[in-house]
TrEMBL record, chains A, B:
Name this protein carries in UniProt: HTH tetR-type domain-containing protein
Signal peptide interval: none
Keyword Magnesium among record annotations: no
Keywords: DNA-binding, Transcription, Transcription regulation
Sections of the chain in a coiled coil: none
DNA-binding region ranges: 31-50
């Protein structure tokens, strides 16, 4: 096995181990020493596979984003309007799509609480690298599709900004709603709140 | 000075010191040892003034909530409709009020970033005490007033739930928007996003 192959193998083993720890005990429990012990390498070897622990965490978080991507891609959404101005029915379908996407986000957060939280808890000392940001931005595209139906008048750049804001609003509802110490809402209650509020948001966005 | 008076004095000194540390360096920088040194008491004396560090942090967070309460109470909002069903103008004023409250929240977070963040970062081992929860709930009342105009049909309990969800949505927009590593939007851009999205939310809520 070449040095590069061995490094790749170590990288995969460390990512698996870190993912398990984060999923089980949360990001705060992640320690380089424990990881080295778990995969059976020297502490220093971690830094031949990753420049630092931040980079390892980002690799785990990228997996979480890809898992979410598969979840969200499976959400049944409207095919989108054909040519010409969107009809009233198109707009209603787009509002429903926004609600469905938000509910899928709630479900994902509920099913993978620790991994999902790690996406936001991880505060790095530098900005995330491009490959990570690209994946984040890709996920906003799912929101941009119904938004294009609701607000065909918006310039592309403004629409992608509004898509991010819609995501942030949904994230706020989900994260405070699932926070046991703060709001403590059950998932069915939270789901109905999302239907009410994200539904209102979609309806109110259409001109 | 009685023992109780001395304890009250120590309590105030510790709260001041903790508030300064949180405002300057954030919640993570708060250490009992440093606090004791700063107020000139023995480490153990802290625990005669507060049952634990959690209780001290909650006292600081209560001050932050009260400061926010003063800010939000100064937001100029519509006097609310008189008798009878709200008119279209009443509803428009209520939507504007929701936007104004959300913008005030953004401004508060921007002016007191560390203290504001501490309100949400602080994860306690037990649920917050009633006096703290009461103050949180009191703040939702500001959102309930315009909501009453927009959705007079909702039962009281449902309305207060929707008010919380509106707060969560706004909090999501503000907190991800101000997060330098995640979204990194400037305050004027964020402000316009709030106007677009919270405005849409308010309009979409009216039946």
């Amino acid at each position: 096995m070449s040095t590069e192959e061995r490094r790749e193998q170590l990288r995969a083993a460390l990512t698996d181990a870190a993912e398990r720890t984060i999923a089980r005990e949360g990001l705060a429990a992640l320690k380089a020493r424990d990881l080295a012990r778990e995969v059976g390498c020297a502490l220093g070897a971690i830094y031949t596979a990753f420049p630092d622990l931040d980079a390892l965490i980002l690799t785990v978080n990228l997996r979480t984003l890809l898992l979410f991507d598969r979840t969200i891609a499976a959400v049944r959404t409207a095919p989108g309007p054909g040519e010409g101005a969107p009809s009233r029915a198109d707009r209603e379908a787009a509002v429903e799509d926004l609600v469905r996407l938000a509910v899928a986000y709630l479900r994902f957060a509920g099913e993978h609480p620790a991994r999902w939280r790690a996406l936001f808890q991880h505060r790095m000392t530098t900005a995330p690298p491009d490959w990570y940001l690209r994946e984040q931005v890709r996920l906003f595209r799912y929101i941009e599709a119904p938004l294009r139906v609701l607000r065909p008048d918006l310039p592309e750049a403004e629409r992608s900004l509004v898509a991010r804001t819609l995501f942030s609003a949904t994230h706020g509802i989900v994260s405070l709603g699932l926070d046991e110490k703060l709001m403590a809402l059950s998932e069915p209650v939270l789901r109905r709140q999302i239907e009410t509020v994200v539904g209102a948001l979609g309806r109110g966005l259409a001109p």
